[in-house]
Amino acid sequence: MLLITAVLTVVQLLALEAFRPGRAAAGGAPPAALVADAVQAYGSAGTLAVVVDRRQSRITEGSVRAAEARLLRRLAYGSDNGPVADRPFPTASMVKLFMAEDILTRARAGSIALTEGDRDLLREMIRRSDDPAASTLWVRYGGGQMVRDVAERYDLAGTGPPPARIPGQWGQAVTTAHDLARFLARLPVVAHPEDAATLLGWMREATPVAADGFVQQFGLFGTLPAEAAVKQGWMCCVDGQRHLHSVAVTGASVVVLLSEVPRSVGYDAARAALTAAGAAVAAGTTVPRDR
């Protein structure tokens, strides 16, 4: 009885606003249709993993029964394109999201003290995907342990640090489309609300051109509404593969696109394929708003 009560209390505190099973997103296409459209639009350029999910939100009132009902609806929502959504991909710059969450969480707990310079590095690491900023923070604040801690807090079974032989290569940390969707969906209820808002705010400030000159306006960036919070990733080459990733939080929706193409496929073609997938999602989405 005590266990049941505890579970219900957690559910009540972290209950979710979600859709009924199979229902379209506030008049838009249902998640399965969005995923199918993205896969079709992407074509045969390479391998694409897609997840569409619903962002979680805290509530502070309402009955336990209502909270349980919202949780069940949340669990019924969401879609993916099968086993590839659970396949580990090199994170490229997606690991910067995990790093930022972990550093902000530890700073709030008082276990580390951030300078204004550190906060500037965090912001630039996200909005401009600044690699030197990420490398500085990776060394300064624990490297792969940050990834392990986030994976534990968010229950990310397919996420881990870079291989032991290359501990400093943060871009070769691994994650899955499902894990990234889960991380972004649960961010408002696992992280402190102010830290979640800060990270999403930096994502909304994403610049069309990254710190290294790479055009990062591809995939979901530029195809979804301007207020979408986005993060882009790109890397070449791990095992002869080129990787481009794009994730977004828009309204109450979370969308994750992870892609892999042979090295022989250039960045322009890889960007075009992922942008076609992002445009297909955007075309079928009427963005649900948080309530």
TrEMBL record:
Beta-lactamase class A catalytic domain mapped to chain residues: 119-249
Keyword Hydrolase attributed: yes
Keywords: Hydrolase
GO molecular function: hydrolase activity
InterPro entries xref list: Beta-lactam/transpept-like (IPR012338), Beta-lactam_cat (IPR045155)
Full protein name: Serine hydrolase
Organism of provenance: Blastococcus carthaginiensis
